[in-house]
Amino acid sequence: MKFLYEHHIVDIIRRFPVAGVEADSLLAGLRPLQPRLYSLASSQALVGNEAHLTVARVRYELHGTARGGVATTQIADRLEMGSTIPVYVQENPHFRLPADDVPIIMVGPGTGVAPFRAFLQEREARAAAGRSWLFFGERNFRSDFLYQVEWQEWLDEGVLSRLDVAFSRDASSKTYVQHRMREQSRNLFAWLEEGAHFYVCGDGKAMARDVHEALIGIVEHEGGRSREAAEDYIRNLAAEHRYQRDVY
Amino acid sequence: MTTRTIDRSTDLSQALDKLGPDETLKYNSDYLRGHIASDLLDRITGGVTFASNKLMKFHGIYQQDDRDIRDERRRQKLEPALTFMVRVRLPGGVCTPEQWLKIDELAQTHGGNTIRLTTRQTFQFHWIVKEDIKPTIEGLHDVLLDTIAACGDDSRGVMATADPADSDIHAEVAELSKQLSDHVIPKTRAYHEIWYGEERVATSENEEPFYGKQYLPRKFKIGFVVPPSNDIDVYTQDLGFIAVTGPNGIEGFNVTIGGGMGRTDNEPTTYPRLADVVGFIPKDRLLACADAVMGVQRDYGNRVVRARARFKYTIDDKGLDFIKSEIEQRMGAPFESARPFDLTTNGDGFGWRQTDRGTWNYGLFIANGRVSDLPGRDIMTGLREIAKVLSGNLRLTPNQNLIIAGVTPEDKPQIEALLAKHGLAESDKTSSLRLNSIACVALPTCPLAMAEAERYLPDLITKIEAILEQNGLAQEPITIRMSGCPNGCSRPYVSEIALTGRAPGKYNLYLGGGFHGERLNSLYAENIGEERILEILSEKLSTYANERAPGERFGDFVTRMIDRERAA
Ligand SMILES: Cc1cc2nc3c(=O)[nH]c(=O)nc-3n(C[C@H](O)[C@H](O)[C@H](O)COP(=O)(O)OP(=O)(O)OC[C@H]3O[C@@H](n4cnc5c(N)ncnc54)[C@H](O)[C@@H]3O)c2cc1C
Ligand code: HEM
Ligand code: SF4
């Protein structure tokens, strides 16, 4: 697996050239590209006939050459303004806003923040009364604070009740969303006890697991429960559809 | 006899709701604390709230943003790139080598690797991000510097002539400016609590025995001048002290009141004003005099209309005679009649000069006070190396230049070698126009700038130099000053040639200020671009070269000429 992660098809062909295989026949043997999924970052209730996406351009270096993600560099670098691309909507019934008066806690570092922008747009349009709390994280405060001015406005207007941010590359000690959750553990537990729904979106490799761990720890600590009881508490949240995740 | 009734409807005697919004803000700030401490911890923004920004000015700190990238960031849904300007309090502009090295270090770690020397003889850091304000101020504290009252409605940094011929007089004036500055700054403990993390001590005392809760109506600027130099432009200060010296040093001061540069375009009730000389005081009355003058401004200054709040307007509104007698009453003594004095220039001296103590001073020209490393001119590195070995001190001049002072004859070769090594030895081998130029900071950091100043004036001067060259005027000292807006931070309105920004690439052109700051210039052309500026200057300078009286200054000549044009 690790080998395949570090070697794309072109790397393998370069490393193990097979005589007699032409570009045409190679391409014919490959599967078509899979579609890429993106969370909707907008609510039609507020933006009408538009759909906003939050796309992070994938760029990295491999074997000494610069590589780019197929879809994201297509969108960011090659498509002209005004061009069209084929899209379809894939619904996710397990990631939905609760009733208007129910408090929500949203954990969305990086592009994981996209659906929460849609949530707040929706709540703004509906003038929903429920409180809302967002945890956001990225690398640098100065350059990567996605939708900064929108959150600021929503905070001013009360559409967003609280915002805690963690920028991992700014301080000497790396800070992530789960650290901010722990700092606020008492409040966070109080919100859960008051019936808040808890949402996580974004990176499924490390972040979702770290946030899950932090959540168990908070329930253990603030709820005075054993580890197993805390895990039960979280399982129960999920069963009540109050703990929803969309991770990738 | 009729006693004139003095209008009290706009001053401190009125209830807060009758006064401008800044008065309520100051009054409710808990002596300049406000919510500064919690705003500093707010991670959602790189800035502070409107109210905290106002209050932080009293602590010498001013929120700005990088205007070059404002539009780009707006498109990215990011707030402006907010950073802070932090201005040091450096009475008389005198700084020890140790202090210089600390300033240099702080500029490298927090201030974008550059330092600005200002027209009020102090250091200004730009580009300081919110989290770094505290470490910067703590660093300054290590070398006994602070930023108290460097901005705000209070008495700002006190200036003093940087390089008088007599060393003892300089030492005395520098010391007096320090004493006076310590005397007139706010006394609230807010600064120590917020920036040094000191505990708040409960006290029943009035925290501001002089200022009270509303401080002054507006900024207040004080300076000392030692004739014949008028480097501090004493006529632009709210309160000026012209040293009168005798065989035993300073005897006292001629006092000037009511100078100020700021004006607003299309706002005829605002104008630059030169100070009036009101009389002489003996030296021991200095602090009492400052208290009296500032007290009058505190009590009578306009707190309804901020644009009219400077002391110069208080004097014009209430009458000079009334203000003078009110000062005398508070001072407990009348002014004596002014002693004769003679001011000849507001420029600086450059290169090596031996002092009466046998040590040497080197006047280093620094274009627009910008200390950084430029191609072939490592100003920042060079001065760091010099400060490491210097046994004297460094003095910031009111023209944004630097004097490396008190160099012993033994140390001189070493300093000379360092100047040469870093491309600083020939700093004054340029046109007199350039040596007598000042530009304010303006773009990209100043929030009020409408046009370039610091980044543009050097290029414009190069073009004017060609005109001077053609007319044989290359070595003629002429003052030129540029401000990015009409506020006039480069003291433009006393300059022989002045440009104040109106819009990108567009300036108002003023001509005819007095060479030593004794006369305001007048508006010659409005809202013009470079081509027209050069056309006008070309015409005026060539007539000057051909028709001037012997020894006549450009400012005097052009004033004569304009008067003639207008009469015709
Ligand atoms: C439900 C869901 C929601 C999503 N929502 C969003 C969203 O809102 N915003 C968003 O930006 N994305 C979102 N994604 C991810 C998105 O679908 C794409 O996977 C992503 O944009 C990359 O697409 P790409 O074509 O540019 O990259 P690809 O060409 O697919 O390249 C990505 C691949 O590059 C390889 N790779 C990456 N880094 C390295 C490295 N350092 N070394 C070696 N190989 C590497 C990996 O194999 C990786 O799988 C979501 C995914 C899911 C499943
Ligand atoms: C960079 C941000 C700055 C801002 C926003 C600013 C703001 C202002 C304003 C509003 C005025 C007009 C005051 C009035 O009319 O009452 C003014 C005047 C002035 N400022 Fe600044 N200033 C800045 C930088 C500087 C610097 C770098 C200096 C040099 C130390 C300076 C020194 C002065 C002087 C000398 C005047 C005019 C003299 C006077 O009116 O008495 N300022 N400034
Ligand atoms: S003169 Fe205007 S543009 Fe220049 S520093 Fe002062 S306020 Fe800013």
TrEMBL record, chain B:
Record text on cofactor binding: Binds 1 [4Fe-4S] cluster per subunit.
Cyclic nucleotide-binding domain sequence ranges: 516-568
UniProt xrefs under Pfam families: NIR_SIR (PF01077), NIR_SIR_ferr (PF03460)
Cofactor(s) of this protein: [4Fe-4S] cluster; siroheme
Keywords of this entry: 4Fe-4S, Amino-acid biosynthesis, Cysteine biosynthesis, Heme, Iron, Iron-sulfur, Metal-binding, NADP, Oxidoreductase
PROSITE patterns, per database record: CNMP_BINDING_3, NIR_SIR
Pathway: Sulfur metabolism; hydrogen sulfide biosynthesis; hydrogen sulfide from sulfite (NADPH route): step 1/1
Entry keyword Metal-binding: yes
Catalyzed chemical reaction(s): hydrogen sulfide + 3 NADP(+) + 3 H2O = sulfite + 3 NADPH + 4 H(+)
Chain residues that bind [4Fe-4S] cluster: 440, 446, 485, 489
Gene Ontology MF term list: sulfite reductase (NADPH) activity
Statement: the UniProt record of this protein carries the keyword Heme: yes
Positions annotated to bind siroheme: 489
Function statement: Component of the sulfite reductase complex that catalyzes the 6-electron reduction of sulfite to sulfide. This is one of several activities required for the biosynthesis of L-cysteine from sulfate.
Family the entry assigns: Belongs to the nitrite and sulfite reductase 4Fe-4S domain family.
NCBIfam families, A to Z: CysI (TIGR02041), PRK13504.1 (NF010029)
Subunit structure: Alpha(8)-beta(8). The alpha component is a flavoprotein, the beta component is a hemoprotein.
This protein's name: Sulfite reductase [NADPH] hemoprotein beta-component
Organism name: Sphingomonas daechungensis
